[in-house]
């Protein structure tokens, strides 16, 4: 019997997606890959992201050699017709990572959707766990502990290694006083090759012809595009950077945007790495004495806790989650934000982070949440537009990643389904956790006047605007009561209104 061809999407590039075990494709199945130009036409993606995805796809096709039929087409439909031929050969495909892609493949005759790969927990197991909670109260901490037990991660005789499930309180140190960078080895970086040159040439040509439009800067490529590169990046992180990861996990430095972060989200989300191998290697480093438990637990929590949790909630909450807007935020994203125009921004924290996104398509989770997301939340930007921006502008951004992260975590647009409070702060938090405020034109402690920090003003204006909702939330009630102690509240609100249409 002839093996059915297997269709690989552009985020299913690791060897585990062709593994015939555990519900995988037929052994030695021919492979189909489709590069659809329409994907780049639909959105104004970051140029570095478009480069990375196309480079990774073309590198994978080169590795597969004669086993793959790589089709460059205008749309997936056109590409499939060319790949399947007149006989419309039967195909298999691993469960796609977006609802739109899943709906599309399910409309096709002769295409069998196999189980999802690249995650630690099958959908059916999550459904059973969620069912035990009645589908409510599905908080990340409970999910994380369940995954640890289920997969035996950092467990000793049925108990969490070290006696605590969560070492987050050990992982909140500000950067070392006076330091501009962390004194650790640099992260692994790739060397570009002929495939990267071809991709850049194609993107230049399409852009000159007006076929596509990008935002941000491209080059040189900073993230893995092959399995070999991804494993090299993982090895470098585990051996030389993991030990310092935990304590400065939430810190920010203007001259060191990477700090000790792993930079593995992009290869993970391209499918070049499997999350199981990442967490197992980290655990082995701790058990061999090469990294402290707080760093290893923090890294494991990012992958087995947060990444896995976001993936499961994307499917669990359903398509209507996309339109959630509990705080009724409808303001459009300003042009300076859409264009990544860091020079138009005075606030040093926001300008610095926006420049990092412009130049690399990446910044770590605290700038995403407490600088970019917080600005959007305080100013009442439309959460659907914010979600789209994060999806387009980050090299690791995909629909399943950004929808829960932005709608639920960052913008609190689901009204608390995912998190128990909005995540935003005044300038004091940014000042504590970074070196960004010192040279800034604004002062984190000032709420009104020319030197008022837009985050401090915005924080109190946000609390005032949502006083009724947040005053009854145990996690925000004390902050809301603080409004009554502000003698300058009228001036603060007037100041906040005046600066709404201007770059901070």
TrEMBL record:
Gene3D superfamilies: 1.25.40.80, Deoxyribodipyrimidine photolyase-related (1.10.10.1710), DNA Cyclobutane Dipyrimidine Photolyase, subunit A, domain 3 (1.10.579.10), HUPs (3.40.50.620). Coiled coil: none annotated. Residues 166-175 have a biased composition (Basic and acidic residues). Residues 162-181 are annotated as: Disordered. Pfam families: DPRP. InterPro entries: Crypto/Photolyase_FAD-like_sf, PhrB-like, Rossmann-like_a/b/a_fold, UV-DNA_repair_photolyase. This is Cryptochrome/photolyase family protein. It comes from Streptomyces polygonati.
């Amino acid at each position: 019997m002839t093996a059915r061809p297997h269709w690989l999407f552009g985020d299913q590039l690791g060897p585990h997606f062709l593994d015939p075990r555990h519900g995988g494709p037929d052994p030695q199945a021919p492979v189909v890959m489709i590069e659809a130009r329409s994907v780049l036409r639909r959105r104004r993606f970051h140029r570095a992201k478009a480069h990375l995805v196309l480079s990774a796809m073309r590198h994978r096709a080169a590795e597969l050699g004669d086993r793959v039929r790589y089709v460059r087409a205008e749309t997936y439909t056109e590409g499939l017709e060319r790949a399947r031929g007149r006989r419309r050969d039967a195909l298999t495909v691993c469960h796609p990572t977006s609802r739109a892609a899943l709906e599309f493949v399910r409309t096709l005759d002769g295409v069998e959707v196999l189980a999802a790969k690249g995650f630690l927990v099958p959908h059916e197991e999550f459904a059973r766990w969620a069912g035990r909670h009645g589908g409510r109260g599905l908080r990340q901490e409970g999910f994380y502990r369940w995954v640890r037990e289920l997969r035996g991660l950092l467990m000793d005789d049925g108990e969490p290694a070290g006696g605590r499930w969560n070492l987050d309180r050990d992982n909140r140190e500000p950067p070392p006083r006076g330091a501009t960078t962390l004194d650790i080895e640099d992260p692994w970086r790739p060397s570009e090759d002929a495939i990267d040159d071809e991709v850049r040439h194609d993107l230049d040509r399409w852009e000159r012809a007006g076929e596509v439009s990008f935002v941000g800067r491209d080059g040189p490529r900073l993230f893995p595009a092959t399995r070999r590169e991804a494993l090299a990046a993982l090895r470098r992180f585990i051996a030389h950077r993991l030990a310092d990861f935990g304590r400065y996990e939430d810190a920010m430095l203007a001259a060191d945007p990477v700090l000790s972060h792993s930079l593995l989200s992009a290869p993970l989300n391209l499918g070049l790495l499997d999350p199981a191998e990442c967490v197992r290697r980290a655990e082995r480093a701790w058990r061999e004495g090469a990294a402290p438990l707080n760093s290893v637990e923090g890294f494991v929590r990012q992958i087995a806790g947060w990444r896995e949790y976001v993936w499961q909630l994307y499917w669990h909450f359903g398509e209507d989650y996309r339109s959630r807007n509990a705080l009724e935020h409808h303001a459009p994203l300003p042009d300076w934000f859409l264009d990544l125009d860091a020079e138009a921004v005075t606030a040093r924290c926001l300008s610095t982070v926006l420049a990092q996104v412009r130049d690399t398509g990446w910044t770590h989770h605290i700038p995403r949440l407490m600088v970019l997301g917080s600005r959007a939340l305080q100013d009442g930007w439309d959460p659907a537009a914010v979600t789209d921006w994060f999806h387009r502008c980050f090299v690791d951004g995909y629909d399943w990643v950004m929808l829960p992260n932005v709608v639920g975590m960052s913008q609190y647009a689901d009204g608390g389904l995912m998190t128990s409070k909005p995540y935003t702060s005044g300038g004091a938090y940014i000042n504590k956790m970074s070196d960004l405020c010192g040279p800034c034109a604004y002062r984190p402690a000032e709420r009104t006047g020319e030197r008022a920090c837009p985050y401090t003003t915005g924080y109190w204006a946000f609390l005032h605007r949502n006083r009724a909702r947040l005053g009854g939330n145990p996690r925000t009630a004390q902050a809301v009561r603080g409004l009554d102690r502000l003698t300058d509240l009228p001036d603060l609100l007037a100041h906040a209104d005046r600066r709404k249409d201007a770059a901070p």
